[in-house]
Automatic annotation (TrEMBL), chains A, B:
Signal peptide range: none
Tagged with keyword Membrane: no
Record's protein name: CRP-like cAMP-binding protein
Pfam family, one: HTH_Crp_2
Any one GO cellular component localisation term in the record: cytosol
GO molecular function: DNA binding; DNA-binding transcription factor activity
Keyword annotations from UniProtKB, A to Z: DNA-binding, Transcription, Transcription regulation
Gene source species: Chromatocurvus halotolerans
Boundaries of every HTH crp-type domain copy: 153-219
Amino acid sequence: MKTAHPPTVSAIRPEDNHLLAALAPCTLARLLPRLKFAHLSLGQVLYEPDVEMRQVYFPTDCIVSLLYVMQDGASAEIAVVGNEGVLGVSLFMGGESTPSRAVVQSAGGAFSLPRLAVKEEFNRHGELMHLMLRYTQSLITQMAQTAVCNRHHTVDQQLCRWLLMSIDRLSCNRLLMTQELIANMLGVRREGVTEAAGKLQKLGVITYKRGKIEVLDRGRLEVLSCECYAVVKRETDRLLNRKPRQH
Amino acid sequence: MKTAHPPTVSAIRPEDNHLLAALAPCTLARLLPRLKFAHLSLGQVLYEPDVEMRQVYFPTDCIVSLLYVMQDGASAEIAVVGNEGVLGVSLFMGGESTPSRAVVQSAGGAFSLPRLAVKEEFNRHGELMHLMLRYTQSLITQMAQTAVCNRHHTVDQQLCRWLLMSIDRLSCNRLLMTQELIANMLGVRREGVTEAAGKLQKLGVITYKRGKIEVLDRGRLEVLSCECYAVVKRETDRLLNRKPRQH
DNA sequence: AATACCATGTACGTTACCGCACATAGTGGA
DNA sequence: TCCACTATGTGCGGTAACGTACATGGTATT
């Protein structure tokens, strides 16, 4: 068997997740005893469609995709969640499951919180509730924009957006990700990604090599991306009031 | 000026909205004094992007589209809301606005409830809160599926889905809707809709004439539609537990 | 009844993406 | 060192939807 990469222990504190970090100390203190750190590996499935979720996850340095897989096997990414958010919103929204699947797209850490603990704290109707609901709205924005993007924008633009969303959720400009996997997320052919990525490399915006992608010119990536990236970013910043003005 | 159609007064009771109907009598009684009935006309804009909402709307027999309009004027429908739901979820989710716009797609009635009244009742953390959150999850499902649909399905299939979603929210099989408007919702060319609708008419599934569409064979429409319609319907039924099993 | 407008039909070249087939080149394990 | 595997590159015909242009035929206004 291939030697697993030693779980790069870089972000292991609850505060590495922005939502947990935003909680008042006393709220966080209540949760701490029940928060469990876990390393999530590439490809790991956190939730299967229509199966009751057993816990929420607060990513610290992993990235998780919400994917819908169709009957014929084709797939499409609905949203992506990293250290800015939480997985399993259906637990407090009341549905307990969704028709989509949650797959780890970039290995890393996350804190899990059991279902009961989530509901208990949510039912205090305090800051955690309000924070979770606001985050859920930002997730809604992301999904809505994904719908728009899928309708109107080219693969080239969508790849730019996807890369930006990914590096925003990591601490560095590199990601471990094959074109095949990106194609799965975007719901396009692998060859389409090869072509789009080739153009970006030729432009000097990224470099890549067998599953390792590095973003060289973030600014240019933003220009080449469609407006969807900025719309979601602005709205997310607004909702979770991270610096109302970022310039 | 063209004589406005006399506001067809067909659904004017709060219980004509499924969410209001699901509330316990005492809860509804609290809301009643502040619920205001209004006739919403075709094309009316309920919310503008990024503008604070002033009330929620519970449709009784109108249909409202959540639309995102891009910088270049192109648009795409994100979700559709009728008597099964409520408009303005951002008011209780905490964001107060969204980047999208809400436009009346089919004229009809709705009850509005002022912002403060919504928050007051929501903050009781009772059945209204739970109902609204579950509805919001069903809205999330719809948006997610719209993203998938935009990625993978043909205009033909999407038109079928769109027609089904529309007549589900009306009491009859007819809708007043030009192909131009449908094209705006789907985010495709008007000619594309003409072609798709032409095929459906040739098959005897619908008939239409200058802005009047009638569905003749609902069953066939479901077969011709993509799986997205059924996924959203099943999930919505589950979440708002309207007959857990519908067969 | 005449007219202006609007909804729909149709045609045609263009483009983005698909499906498929196959070539090339790193990489890890035997 | 060799081999098998995986990731990426490339070419080609097919197709769905686009942009544009224009024709036809209802409907409302005068």
